[in-house]
């Protein structure tokens, strides 16, 4: 589905006009329009959060953690992305922030007649957006679920993103593949890479090895991921969205958020280490917020928020059991 509104004034003072959002819904919005959950996707995600091919299909659906028998789940393609919503390939696009990306989705809620959400939720960049929503629209969501995320991007996060952007600026297609390879390494863990590939050499590769060829299986895997990414993602969107992530810093504003909070960390996530999750928790607790914190054991790295759906589902379902449906 598509929704278009007149204009959006950005944090920078620039104006984007008009703004189009492509979104999907799962489950039925009730007559009172008080059973909606808004899910924010991560950097390379999209609105297809459930059903066949959905990136959280084991979490969103009938009887699942985000139970579509009870809730209407909404997910929109983010501003600045390349899956139908307004982005850098549509016009002379200005720099945007996480705050802007969240603000772009509020007119959609107004259009649907939703005054208050049961929850906002997201992992990675989506978790940043959930936290930003709680700060900018306090009380508009009863519950905030922030998974595998941080209250600000670290110097290390910014450094990885900048290397990827430099590669893209030098060569948009090849650079995007390299950026994805770099990013994908940060999404995994040393344990997961070792268990999956170790130092395995591709059969027959050693005899004909040239620089640029893939000798180790892990090299071939990263190349496959990089090339595949160029077929579904836009290089300019990668530039804009990673810059928005880099600019994100909500540490001094968390006290403005209202509602119940669930913060989830995965033990092998080194992109957003536990100290960053605890920073969110501590700041919320210091301002008197109702906060639940869950640590989930996993060797999957940052991507555990996509891969550990069963464990994550238990935490979310338990948390939402206290929500008004």
TrEMBL record:
Keywords: Acyltransferase, Amino-acid biosynthesis, Cytoplasm, Methionine biosynthesis, Transferase
Domain of life the protein comes from: Bacteria
UniProt-annotated location(s): Cytoplasm
Molecular-function GO terms, alphabetical: homoserine O-acetyltransferase activity
InterPro entries assigned to the protein according to its UniProt record, in alphabetical order: AB_hydrolase_1 (IPR000073), AB_hydrolase_fold (IPR029058), HAT_MetX-like (IPR008220)
GO annotation terms (biological process): homoserine metabolic process; methionine biosynthetic process
EC number: 2.3.1.31
Involved pathway(s): Amino-acid biosynthesis; L-methionine biosynthesis via de novo pathway; O-acetyl-L-homoserine from L-homoserine: step 1/1
Catalysed reactions, as listed in the record: L-homoserine + acetyl-CoA = O-acetyl-L-homoserine + CoA
Pfam families with a match to the protein in the record: Abhydrolase_1
GO cellular component assignments: cytoplasm
Binding site for substrate: 180, 303
The UniProt record lists the keyword Acyltransferase: yes
Active site: residue positions: 124, 269, 302
Domain AB hydrolase-1: 35-308
Predominant place of localization: cytoplasm
Entry keyword annotation includes Lipid biosynthesis: no
Assembly notes: Homodimer.
Family recorded in the similarity comment: Belongs to the AB hydrolase superfamily. MetX family.
Family matches, as PANTHER family: HOMOSERINE O-ACETYLTRANSFERASE
Function: Transfers an acetyl group from acetyl-CoA to L-homoserine, forming acetyl-L-homoserine.
UniProt protein name: Homoserine O-acetyltransferase
